[in-house]
Amino acid sequence: MSDPNPYADDSYKWGPPQQPGNPPTVEDGQGQGQSAPAYGYPQQLSDSAAQPGPGYGHPGYGYPQQPGMPPGGGGVPMLTFGDIAVVNDQIVTPAGTMPLKGAVWTATDLSRTEERIPTVAIVLAIVFALLCLVGLLFLLMKEKTTTGFIQVSVTSGGRHHSTMIPAMGPETFPMVMAQINTARSMSI
Q: N or C terminus: which one in the chain shows less Cβ crowding within 10 Å?
């Protein structure tokens, strides 16, 4: 159990292979021909690395684009469904752009609406039931809560993308379906 590691020798082996006695160096960028240790010191970036790159999280940026398509779709979105945006004759998603013509739109209602008697109504019914039987009318109070999501999917140009839209109430799905029907009419 206390056998030494047969693969370890006592030499230091971290980092890239080095010449013995020569620390890695880089030119300091001052043009004086002096060299400075490479590790732990800031280095000047090359011209290509100093250019700002595409931003992350903005539709159309940071993801592979179709050739000839401008990043982001080039315009103001006419419709949006979560992270799906319809811009001019394109559909912009985080995975790239798709052509609007011939797109297939689907929506699935994954929400549910529950109706229950709130706790306040039960407490008031008990308190007023002791005083008079009119307190039982508090049990007629109902509270509706909607939970879940509406899933919107689009398929076009050999690509597919889905997004989930939170259901805020029972009217969310008909509102999303109205927008889907508008997108379908634009896709013809």
A: N
pLDDT digits over 60-87, tens only? 444 444 444 445 446 788 889 889 999 9
In angstroms, rounded to a whole number, what is the distance separating the alpha carbons of residues 166 and 187?
25
The two tokens of residue 135 are 């307190």
Per-position DSSP letters for 39-107, written without gaps between them: TTS--PPPHHHHS--PPSSSTTSSS---TTPPGGGSS--SEEETTEEEETTEEEETTEEEESTT-EEEE
Q: Which of 35-49, 96-110, 134-148 has the lowest mean pLDDT?
A: 35-49
Query: How far is it, in rounded angstroms, from Cα 123 to Cα 56?
Result: 52
Question: Alpha-carbon distance 29 to 38, whole Å?
Answer: 12
> Percent helix, strand, coil in the chain (nearest 5)?
25, 30, 45
Sort strands 143-156 and 35-37 into parallel, antiparallel or unpaired. Answer: unpaired
Residue whose structure tokens are 């039931």:
129
Element (H, E) at 129: helix 119-131
User: What's the sign of the alpha-carbon dihedral 158, 164, 167, 168?
Assistant: negative
Residue with tokens 């709130």: 118
Higher-pLDDT residue of 160 and 60 is 160
Interatomic CA distance for residues 109 and 172, integer angstroms: 9
pLDDT, one tens digit per residue, over 9-26 is: 656 555 556 555 555 555
